[in-house]
Design a protein that fits this description.
With 133 residues, this protein is an alpha/beta fold. The chain has helices at residues 17-28, 85-94; strands spanning 10-14, 31-38, 41-49, 52-58, 76-80, 101-107, 113-120, 126-132. It folds into 2 domains: 7-71, Roll (2,3-Dihydroxybiphenyl 1,2-Dioxygenase, domain 1), CATH 3.10.180; 75-133, 2,3-Dihydroxybiphenyl 1,2-Dioxygenase, domain 1 (Roll), CATH 3.10.180.
């Protein structure tokens, strides 16, 4: 039987698309995958962050195929971190980003013991970096 294989991408709504994309690029080396622009204005940008895809929607972009009430700062996203949780903490520290919580013991979706570190992006979205032990 066919079924869910995983996530393809997650969409977030942001107050300033360009500032948000710069933020994720500075932190994680975001690679632009697709820009959806109308009249020279980018309304949606898909960025790759390692093996994850984030679809960044400019608030009020007029696109109808979105959540019923897209709101800045309403997302809670967990990214798997490829290094140690200490290296994730060092990355945030280097950018002057204070963790909200962590490192905290967690388990990955496939049951592996891990550590997580939480912080907020420019819009207040809760971002979790999870490193398997």
């Amino acid at each position: 039987m066919a079924g869910i294989a995983g996530f393809d991408h997650v969409a977030i709504t942001v107050a300033d698309l360009e500032a948000t994309c710069r933020f994720y690029d500075r932190l994680f080396g975001a690679e632009t995958h697709v820009d959806h622009s109308v009249g020279g204005r980018t309304l949606v940008r898909q960025i790759r962050l390692g093996g994850a895809m984030l679809s960044v929607h400019q608030a009020g972009n007029g696109i109808d195929l979105v959540a019923r009430r897209p709101t800045e700062g309403s997302a809670d996203i967990c990214f798997r971190w490829s290094g140690t949780i200490a290296s994730a903490a060092a990355r945030l520290d280097a950018e002057g980003i204070a963790p909200v919580e962590g490192p905290s013991p967690r388990r990955t979706s496939d049951g592996v013991p891990s550590q997580s570190l939480y912080f907020r992006d420019l819009d207040g979205n809760l971002i979790e970096l999870m490193a398997a032990d």
